[in-house]
Amino acid sequence: MKKNVVKAVCGILAATCVVSLAACGSKDELKVGKEFVAAPSQLDALTKLDKGEADVAVIDSVMAGYYTTTGDYADKMQMVDGLVFAEESYGVAGKKGNKALMSKINEALIGIRTTDYAALATEYGLTSSIALTETTADTYADATDSSWTDVVTSGKIVIGYTLFAPIAYEEEGALTGFDIELARKTIAYLNTKYETNVTVEFLLIEWSTKEAKLADGTIDLVWNGMTITPEREAEMCVSVPYLYNKQVAVVLKKDSAKYSTVESMSKAIMTAESGSAGETVIVGEKDE
């Protein structure tokens, strides 16, 4: 989803599409396109594309693969063939210092790797994105803080999410999706193993507010296709990688010939979710 581990679009993978340094403008210019229009969510980015408010949307391949083959957008939109801006991994994030809580999340993810996790990956068409392997190890195994005990005492864990299929979406009025169901299975595993009774609550958030909501305790976890970056690992407590993802471009099918390369997008209006890896692809890293 969401912030790019590659610092600029010049790092596009050679195996898919090599972009020369000449494609990257000065610090004050966009990395891709002539104008950037921020969207509240990745789904909103596709809506802007559909309404003609943008020419190119940069979003997660996990989401792009779903919406370009399923639903109302399947006949209208497509991914730009062979163009990958970055490869990345998804992780779950908690408040900085909450290592014991993240240790339990890691433990459960590893514990259900060959059962519920594998089944959900198949159900949601994400088998090619599987990141958990037999060598995955809990990075917080020695944690001793009270964060897991605090969750058990409160009896609930609040998870922040945004809507984008197949990660999190509503179907017949019910919240579902790969990350949603994986979170439920993870907490169910812990409840069974440790004889606890923690319930899961999901809170819809704006992606750009996730750090603030973790810090002030509004949510306990961000579980929503969050890209693991060194910056986030320094600022938050981040789980082991559980899915692989790529940053890709989506265009209207009628514009597929017009926008087929980064160079051809030089005069395009670009859109991406605010605070996402897609935004970083377009505008570059923001100065702190």
List keywords for this structure.
single chain; 288 residues; alpha/beta; D-Maltodextrin-Binding Protein, domain 2; 2 domains; nine-stranded mixed beta sheet; two-stranded antiparallel sheet; 9 helices; 11 strands; 28% helix; 25% strand; elongated; disordered N terminus
Description:
With 288 residues, the protein is an alpha/beta fold. It folds into two domains: 117 residues, no CATH class; 157 residues, D-Maltodextrin-Binding Protein, domain 2 (3-Layer(aba) Sandwich). Helices cover 28% and strands 25% of the residues. The protein is built from nine helices and eleven strands. Strands 1, 2, 3, 4, 7, 8, 9, 10 and 11 form a nine-stranded mixed sheet that branches. α3 crosses α5, α3 packs across α6 and α4 packs antiparallel against α6. The longest helix is centred in the middle third of the chain and has 17 residues. The chain is elongated, with a radius of gyration of 19 Å. The N terminus is likely disordered.
Describe the secondary structure blueprint for this structure:
Layout: E1 35-39, H1 42-51, E2 56-60, H2 61-67, E3 77-95, H3 99-111, H4 116-123, H5 147-154, E4 156-161, E5 169-171, E6 174-176, H6 178-194, E7 199-204, H7 210-215, E8 221-227, H8 230-235, E9 236-238, E10 243-252, E11 269-273, H9 277-283
Parallel strand pairs: 1-11, 2-11, 4-7, 4-8
Antiparallel strand pairs: 2-10, 3-8, 3-9, 3-10, 5-6
Helix pairs in contact: 3-5, 3-6, 4-6
Strand content: 25-35%
Distance between the amino and carboxyl termini:
21 Å
- Count helical runs: 9
Structural Rg: 19 Å
The top level CATH class name of the largest domain: Alpha Beta
Q: Mind summarizing the main beta sheet?
A: 9 strands, mixed
H/E series: EHEHEHHHEEEHEHEHEEEH
